[in-house]
Design a protein that fits this description.
The complex is a heterodimer. By secondary structure, chain A is of the alpha+beta class. Chain A is built from 7 helices and 4 strands. Chain A is elongated and about 55 Å long. By secondary structure, chain B is of the alpha/beta class. In chain B, the strands form 5 sheets. Chain B has a 5-stranded mixed beta sheet with strand order 2-1-3-4-5, with helices on one face. Chain B has a 5-stranded mixed beta sheet with strand order 11-10-14-12-13. Classes of the chains: A alpha+beta, B alpha/beta. The A-B interface holds A 16-22, 24-25, 55-56, 59-63, 77-80, 82-84, 115-124, 126, 128, 133, 135 and B 52-53, 55-58, 88-89, 91, 241-246, 249-250, 281-283, 319-320, 322-325, 336-342, 357, 398, 400-402, 406, 437, 440, 471, 473, 475, 479, 484, 487-488, 491, 497.
Chain lengths: 153, 648
């Protein structure tokens, strides 16, 4: 882990504050999430206080401090999906998998992320599990999908 | 796939097309160019629309199925990826163009229907109900009983200028864009216009920023150009993050070269040698298409050093926004580019004086930039003729929600709002139109009797309606207005950057109040009820304070949906407050449950499950729900095996 972060930082030699976001994005893409170690290393490399780096990382939706689960569930909560019932989809997941937005279940199987719009409003309510899309969902349909996933586990 | 171009193509374009782009091309070149437009094909061409929304609908599986079909039947055909026509409800759309025949589009081609449709098409038989339309052409043989694209009501009723190419051209091929008339505006501008005259033309044309604010674009450029500086920066704001708005994303995915051409001309106008496209990291396909488009433009000398031998150089880079709604505001966007938290800063100084890293900066929306090439090519007079006295040109809307057709439409300014509803086919059958919501979390719901109002920045403003960025939700009777405003307030609460306390705390408090009226009280003691009423009374004052004391548009407009809904749908709010009922059945906590005594077998499953012990009875005889104790959680309904629990 430390190696791969160092490799990324090497590309940004003599970089300033403006490359902070691209660096964090690259680290997250490579390692899945940010943690204390990576934040400290980035801060040292750029000469920025760790608190500032942490402040920035927690401000933006993209940066995560918890590793994704084996099945990463993205729920679209755009206006259109909401009107078509994405609220019940989120409710259903929170109740059945016992995780909230941004959390990963304790065994690391499922993680949930609610996002503002996926740009596919005609198929709402819509979720994606590891890049596989499930359209026009109802809680009942979602139950079958999740049961199928748990079985394949 | 036909992604790239051959060396012969490149030589032809670099030697015969690009140097003469600013003038009329000779007929031989014109003729050769038409082959890139697929006007006549020697081999069958199959077009498949690949955009975010069609991928969700299964376009990639369809693509695989087509490839499999071609291989299996050893058909010699080319597959061309194209963008979206904006007909999202009919996706995935696949088009087939047989040699000598018109290009015909099929609707909802899921992978299992590929074989059936292609079998038919190759045998010259197409069922009219599986096809949408066929393209116009005088030289090709038409398909019987299928409407021509220009007569197809969806297209005929629109005024497509910016969306002219979407769905038709391959967004991954620069040559197609040029053959459809692309880059002529840039060639003409670089040869015949100075920065100053470009600013003047855009000023004259009356183009206003499409991001929602409606600030005159030409004036913004002029101000920036007049600031003495060694370096200026042009930024394209493609960080579209309104929930339920996807027109910029669709435009970028379907016609990325138009954005890049517009951006190049705009950068030239303000004398910038550096441009940045700020785009949401989540819009992966859009980022990929833009990157590819830029690579090709660099390859042909349409970007980089000495563009088209004019002596002007421009470098464009892509910055992937890490996701914050407030970064749509220009000062916050600049902060984010500088590697800071995206919080808006106090204006003045405006970004056109002190912007990114202290340099004069212009931030323009995708749609604004897409309008630029046509204005330069056809002149300010041409553009001025479209639209109303103060709002010129066209506006793109993405229509969704309860619309019967989810789509992206472009209409000229000045046409009534009802035109949007009409294009989307109104609401679904057996539903009634309740309102349309314009402009997302900072927009308002427009009631049906206000739909006569024209799409016009100023005219709408008089009636208290911001035009917004272009997301339109159609609402029918199954939508609860309290729930909708609660949703928007929740969104604002999450996305507020936290710099101004009125916005940060105010949005939180407003959400709390709205939440309070859309659920049952925790206890029935008088203090609680009093608190609840106090909150409702304070809503309007709170909204006023937020509007007056917030720094940026996010906080200032956060209360708009609520205030309008309170005015226009007062009865619905009162029902929630006084009768504790939701007519749309969306606020589930307000439901009251009852057990049908005829169906109940007395199994006691619900009584065991009830968290508040509100269900009483004796086993093997019908049970009963005590209304006062019921919290409306619905677990009795879920657990009942005999479907004897209902709600009203």
């Amino acid at each position: 882990m430390k190696r791969s972060i160092e490799a990324i930082l090497e590309q940004y030699d003599h970089a300033g504050m403006d490359s902070l976001i691209p660096i964090l994005q690259e680290i997250q893409n490579k390692t899945g999430c940010l943690n204390e170690e990576s934040i400290v290393m980035v801060g040292k490399h750029l000469g920025i206080p760790t608190s500032k780096v942490y402040g920035l990382a927690t401000f933006y939706n993209q940066f995560k401090f918890e590793p994704k689960g084996k099945f990463h569930i993205l729920v679209c909560n755009g206006t259109s999906c909401r009107l078509n019932g994405s609220k019940w989809i989120i409710d259903f997941i929170e109740k059945n998998l016992k995780i909230k937005n941004g959390e990963t279940s304790r065994d690391g199987t499922f993680s949930l992320e609610v996002i503002s719009c996926m740009g596919a409003c005609e198929s709402g309510p819509l979720i994606s599990i590891n890049e596989e899309y499930y359209c026009n969902l109802t809680p009942a349909k979602l139950g079958e999908v999740l049961a199928g996933l748990a079985e394949s586990e | 796939m036909n992604h790239s171009y051959t060396l012969a193509d490149k030589t032809f374009f670099c030697e015969q097309v690009l140097p003469l782009l600013h003038a009329e091309l000779n007929s031989d070149t014109q003729k050769h160019l038409s082959t890139y437009r697929h006007e006549r094909v020697k081999k069958t061409v199959i077009y498949i629309g690949i955009t975010t929304s069609s991928v969700v609908a299964g376009a990639l599986k369809t693509l695989k199925a087509i490839e499999g079909y071609l291989e299996e039947n050893s058909v010699d055909a080319i597959i061309v990826p194209v963008g979206s026509y904006g007909l999202c409800s009919f996706e995935p759309i696949v088009e087939v163009q047989l040699p000598g025949k018109k290009r015909v589009a099929f609707r909802n081609v899921t992978y299992d229907r590929v074989e059936f449709l292609l079998d038919g098409a190759f045998n010259s038989f197409v069922q009219p109900d599986t096809a949408l339309f066929q393209h116009n052409s005088d030289i090709l043989e038409p398909w019987p009983d299928i409407p021509v694209k220009d007569d197809f009501p969806f297209f005929a009723k629109q005024d497509r200028l910016l969306l002219r190419n979407i769905g038709i051209i391959n967004p991954e091929n620069l040559l197609e864009y040029i053959s459809f008339g692309g880059y002529r505006a840039l060639a003409y501008t670089l040869r015949n216009q100075t920065s100053d005259s470009v600013c003047r033309i855009v000023e004259l044309s009356g183009l206003r920023g499409r991001g929602g604010g409606g600030y005159p674009t030409g004036l913004k450029w002029r101000k920036t150009l007049s600031v003495a500086a060694t370096e200026r920066i042009m930024i394209c704001n493609a960080d579209e993050s309104d929930p339920g708005a996807f027109m910029d994303r669709l435009l970028v995915e379907s016609d990325p070269f138009r954005i890049i051409e517009g951006l190049t001309i705009s950068a030239y106008a303000i004398g910038a040698n550096k441009a940045i496209i700020y785009i949401r990291n989540r819009n992966k396909l859009a980022v990929d298409r833009l990157t590819l488009a830029m690579e090709q433009a660099y390859d042909f000398g349409l970007l980089g050093y000495n563009i088209l031998d004019s002596g002007y150089s421009l470098d464009i880079s892509i910055f992937q926004g890490p996701g914050a709604y407030v970064c749509g505001e220009e000062t916050a966007l600049i902060q984010s580019l500088e590697g800071k938290r995206g919080t808006p800063s106090i204006k003045p100084p405006y970004p056109n004086e002190v912007g990114l890293n202290g340099k004069p900066t212009v931030v323009n929306n995708v749609e604004t930039l897409a309008s630029i090439p046509d204005i330069l090519l056809n002149g300010a007079d041409w553009f001025m003729k479209i639209g109303t006295a103060t709002s010129k040109g066209t506006k793109i809307f993405s229509v969704n929600g309860k619309a019967s057709l989810t789509c992206v439409v472009e209409i000229s300014m000045g046409r009534p709002l009802s035109a949007i509803v009409e294009l989307a086919g109104g609401v679904k059958p057996d539903c009634t139109l309740k309102a349309i919501h314009l402009g997302g979390p900072s927009g308002v719901s427009v009631t049906p009797d206000e739909l006569y109002l024209p799409v016009d920045f100023d005219e709408l403003k008089v009636h208290g309606i911001p035009l917004g960025s272009g997301g339109v939700q159609i609402l029918d009777q199954s939508v609860c207005m309290v729930d909708l405003t609660k949703f928007f307030m929740h969104f604002i609460r999450n996305e507020s950057c936290g710099k101004c306390i009125p916005c940060r705390e105010g949005s939180s408090r407003m959400y709390q109040i709205l939440n309070e009226i859309s659920r049952r009280p925790d206890s029935s003691d008088k203090h609680h009820t009093l608190e609840r009423f106090k909150g409702v009374i304070q809503l309007e004052t709170l909204a006023e304070v937020m509007h007056d004391t917030s720094l940026c548009g996010l906080g200032q407009t956060a209360s708009k949906p609520l205030l309008k809904a309170l005015k226009a749908f007062r009865d619905e709010f009162e029902e929630h407050i006084f009768d504790r009922s939701c007519r749309a059945g969306v606020c589930r906590d307000l439901r009251t449950f009852y057990i049908d005594t005829e169906k109940c077998t007395g199994c006691a499953a619900c009584a065991k499950k009830c968290p508040t012990n509100a269900i009483i009875g004796t086993p093997r005889s019908p049970y009963f729900i005590v209304e006062d104790k019921c919290t409306g959680c619905g677990s009795c309904m879920e657990v009942c095996k005999f479907a004897s629990v209902f709600y009203r």
